[in-house]
Design goal:
Elements (H helix, E strand, L loop, with lengths): L2 H14 L5 H11 L6 H10 L4 H11 L10 H21 L9 H12 L13 H16 L3 H16 L9 H12 L1 H9 L8 H6 L8 H12 L5 H12 L1 H6 L3 H9 L9 H5 L6
Length: 284
């Protein structure tokens, strides 16, 4: 039996007895033992498989550029990151933008605004739409990452990735969504068009906020694994899956407002198995 066939046999066996992902976890641990982490291989792994919770923060920090590929530099770099975090937080306290009573996600927002040169003149100034996006992502990330320094840096770099790497791609996602929904269920798309709902779907929630506040944590982590590792198109396939999941309810609604309101307030208990989202030509 060849090495590949042995691996395939073991994978099938593990899955049947309830240990799905054992082989993938071992593969990731091997990648993480390299003296110099291979970014391309880590991206490929994250695209194909959900990251184990115990390694997710580390992999995200490496892929987002918070940590360098070299293991020996990790401790020192994180020390610098922690010092920068403390300095920015101290500056905000001095100018009285935050206090001990300030919610943590708002602290993260003020830190981000200060570092990006967008801190308003007064804490009482109304928030911009981009601030609301940041807060939604921060609130979801806070549930995933316990350490406040790690959490801030991951939020900061995740949002920067959306605003830079995906800046040109995100506006194209509604059109891609329409194309893929047409392939999956043209009748459902026709109903949305009849109700003039296509242009009014909650695209900001789905694509700008990357489903923050829409999906449960376990599912959101799996989606964000893909976003962090280089694929924002996964957001399109998740949106299509949501429409297909709630097809009967959506088909029963006859106005764009009712459809949008329903989708904004509908929460999937969990995403279907990854294979079901990636079949029929959907990328991993």
């Amino acid at each position: 039996m060849t090495e590949d066939s042995q691996r395939n046999f073991r994978s099938v066996y593990y899955e049947k007895v309830g240990f799905r992902g054992v082989e993938e976890k071992k593969s990731l641990e091997i990648l993480l033992k390299d003296d110099r982490l291979d970014i391309e291989k880590l991206c490929t792994f994250s695209q194909r498989f959900p990251l184990p919770s115990m390694y997710r923060a580390l992999v995200w920090k490496v892929l987002l550029g918070i940590l360098p590929p070299h293991h020996e530099s990790h401790a020192q770099v994180m020390m610098y990151r922690k010092e920068q975090y403390s300095d920015v937080l101290h500056a905000l306290r001095v100018v009285r933008f935050v206090s001990d009573a300030t919610p943590q996600v708002e602290v993260y927002l003020r830190m981000y605004q200060l570092e990006s040169g967008k801190l308003p003149r007064s804490p009482s100034f109304p928030r911009e739409p981009e601030d609301e996006v940041f807060l939604a992502i921060a609130k979801a990330m806070e549930e995933m990452v316990e350490d406040s320094v790690d959490c801030y840096w991951i939020i900061r770099c995740f949002v920067n990735q959306l605003n830079s790497k995906y800046r040109d791609s995100l506006p194209q996602l509604p059109k891609a969504f329409e194309q893929y929904l047409n392939l999956e269920d043209s009748r459902l798309l026709s109903h949305l068009k009849t109700c003039s709902a296509v242009s009014k779907l909650p695209y900001d929630l789905w694509f700008k906020r990357c489903f923050a506040g829409c999906l449960p944590e376990s599912s959101l982590q799996r989606v964000w694994d893909k976003v962090v590792s280089g694929s924002c198109k996964i957001l399109v396939f998740v949106a299509v899956e949501i429409l297909l999941t709630f097809k009967i309810k959506v088909m029963a609604l006859n106005s764009a407002e009712k459809i949008t309101k329903f989708l904004e307030n509908s929460h999937l208990p969990t995403l279907p198995d990854q294979g079901s989202i990636t079949q029929q030509g959907h990328p991993p």
